[in-house]
Specification:
The protein is an all-alpha fold and about 375 residues long. The chain has 16 helices and 3 strands. It has a 3-stranded antiparallel sheet. The radius of gyration is 22 Å and the shape is globular. Pathway: Carbohydrate metabolism; tricarboxylic acid cycle.
């Protein structure tokens, strides 16, 4: 008999210096630094550099990296024109997947799979992902595309391109923290998919398009959007306990609750919960937060002993909602953050590459013979 690791759970296939997760104790670190410290002290730009280089930058290096990101924000004009023609009914993840693939056509370095080439493409993708998502959202809503500004931070510039209004420093910082929390998370489904593609020595754009396809699924990036659907279904805080109790009694899945790795609170959810509470109270948008608070209490009381707790998707949607972002863009924003982790993992793996080729236990017939069509 052969043991099968369903979902590849517990299977080790490579080494990495980037991210460490201890799901039992609810620990997440990048380069050995706890995620809470990254969220409190760092920026998405700095974490992106750290992931790509597997070390912290000095001041001059960070300034240059930031300048390079800003200089690469603009999209080719032909791509901007193409985005404007995308069907408005298409899911934003479909348009993102198509736009990134289209972007490769304009990059003369697209087929460069050397470490230097992959790094250069990674930097451009990190810079341009936000522009693609904001442009797609604007055209989908029938609004003119807003060009990027070079004087704003990565987070502030995205919110500006998305809404047409410069965000407050607090709004920009809150969104920056959300990006930091989502930038990398070990060998999740989309990162593994990117690495699997890269292991064939395919180009970086193909790796990222593959990752976007994996992230699109509701069991991965789409979960935060599903959480907001759940909150709308609950309606008011006084109905939350009964609603979730019923789901638990029927053994139905609760979106934003439970995680393949974490058997305790997802540390990212603890950071976002505090910010969600702060924003909700300040902006007078406490309904969503109150519902989530009741759901979390009910879940912890009923099934916390089984190692099932809220994950990062549980609170991220309310943070985005309070920033004025519509729920159909939550998953693309996940990609906006995770692009750093995808690129860093691809670059790391391909430096000591081995083609991924798992196997399966065959359970079909062993002694069958072909039957001619007229005899069937």
């Amino acid at each position: 008999m052969t043991d099968i690791a369903k979902g590849l759970e517990g299977v080790l296939f490579t080494e990495s210096k980037l991210t460490f997760i201890n799901g039992t104790e609810g620990i997440l670190t990048h380069l050995g630094i706890p995620i809470q410290e990254w969220a409190e002290n760092s920026t998405f730009e700095e974490l992106s550099f750290a992931l790509l280089h597997a070390r912290l930058p000095n001041a001059a290096e960070l300034a240059q990296f930031d300048a390079d990101l800003r200089a690469n924000r603009a999209l080719p004009e032909k791509l901007v024109e193409e985005i404007a023609t995308f069907p408005k009914h298409a899911h934003p993840m479909q348009t993102l997947r198509t736009a990134v693939s289209y972007l490769a056509l304009f990059d003369p370095q697209a087929e460069d799979t050397t470490p230097e080439g992959r790094y250069a493409i990674s930097l451009r993708l990190i810079a341009q992902m936000s522009t693609i998502i904001a442009a797609s959202a604007r055209t989908r809503e029938g609004q003119p595309i807003v060009a990027p500004r070079m004087d704003l931070t990565h987070a502030a510039n995205f919110l500006y391109m998305l809404t047409g209004k410069e965000p407050t420093p607090e709004q920009a910082r809150l969104f920056d923290i959300a990006l930091v929390l989502h930038a990398d998370h070990g060998m999740n489904a989309s990162t593994f998919t990117a690495i699997a593609t890269s292991s064939t020595l395919s180009d970086t754009y193909s790796c990222i398009v593959s990752a976007i396809g994996a992230l699109k699924g509701p069991l991965h990036g789409g979960a935060n959007e599903a959480v907001m659907d759940m909150l709308d279904e609950v309606g008011t805080p006084d109905k939350a306990a009964e609603y979730i109790g019923g789901k638990l009694d029927r053994k139905e899945k609760i979106m934003g609750v439970g995680h393949r790795v974490y058997k305790y609170f997802d540390p990212r959810s603890r950071v976002l919960r505090d910010y969600a509470e702060h924003v909700a109270n300040k902006e007078g948008k406490s309904t969503y937060y109150q519902i989530l608070e009741t759901i979390e209490k009910t879940v912890v009381e009923r099934i916390g002993s089984k190692g099932i707790y809220p994950n990062v998707d549980f609170y991220s949607g309310t943070v985005y909602s309070d920033l004025g972002i519509r729920k159909e863009y939550f998953t693309p924003i996940f990609a906006l953050a995770r692009i750093s982790g995808w690129c860093a993992s691809v670059n790391e793996y391909t430096k000591d590459n081995r083609l991924l080729r798992p196997d399966a236990v065959y359970t079909g017939a062993t002694d069958a013979h072909y039957v001619k069509l007229q005899d069937r």
